[in-house]
């Protein structure tokens, strides 16, 4: 009996046959398959969007006007962000110094002075470096834009030639608009000639006695200022011309409603752009200037963004 009890209590011998694996059902595979398809769809959409974006950017940069509009907006955006970041860093440092001075005042005896040199936080250091990088990159972009305008006098000649041919072919002439446009041509030519001379002198290309020394530096500075004044004159004439076009609109030929809307939208864009350029050109027309870098950046974003918007839309397939 004892042997029978021991045999009954002993554990069963392990079976050599493997246990069957659990069988997955189709309902368990469905969520994993749907998630994989969703991820693949997201990747395809991302690649498609990136492809379209790069192609449109390539089309935009393939034209001089598109490149200038993009770089103009980029340069002033960097100026705007750098100005606000610089203000933020300065304000944080001033608050830190003021708090330290308040705390130290109670511990100092009459007549004592505390001189301390404390490193700023790593976050402020990074922001300061980023601000410096943005300012320098904005300067590089601005310098490039001035460089590619060295041959803009050829475009101004083509513009003047087109205005002359258009006037000679018209039977009914608008003498007011004609005078305004020719004034714009003259102002643009003077602006470009002065800017070219000042830029080449700054780069040392023009290095004769007339351009070097203290007198040469003052002359170059005056050329920069006067180039901006002629630019301001062009902007002012363009605003007046747009006002004249608005006043004469009723006398023009009849247009469809769609054409009227398109023409009105183009008119408003030109007006907004020129109103944004106006204070900046006046700012650069003085030796000291009168608006901050933050305002220069904000106005430049508006002025450049108006042109960039149209040119970006034109790149759509």
Q: What number is the mean pLDDT? A: 86
* Helical content band: over 70%
Instruction: Tell me the series of helices and strands, N- to C-terminal.
Output: HHHHHHHHH
Strand content range: under 5%
Radius of gyration: 35 Å
Q: What is the overall number of helices? A: 9
Biggest beta-sheet profile: none
Shape: extended
Number of strands: 0
Uncertain runs are 1-17
Protein name: Peroxin 11c
Region (Disordered): 1-37
Biased composition (Low complexity): 1-10, 22-37
Biased composition (Pro residues): 11-21
Description:
With 317 residues, the chain is mainly alpha-helical. Helices cover 77% and strands 0% of the residues. The protein contains nine helices and no strands. Helix 3 runs antiparallel to helix 4, helix 3 runs antiparallel to helix 9 and helix 6 packs antiparallel against helix 7.
Outline the fold blueprint.
Layout: H1 2-9, H2 26-61, H3 64-105, H4 122-148, H5 152-169, H6 175-202, H7 213-247, H8 257-284, H9 293-313
Helix pairs in contact: 3-4, 3-9, 5-6, 6-7, 7-8, 8-9
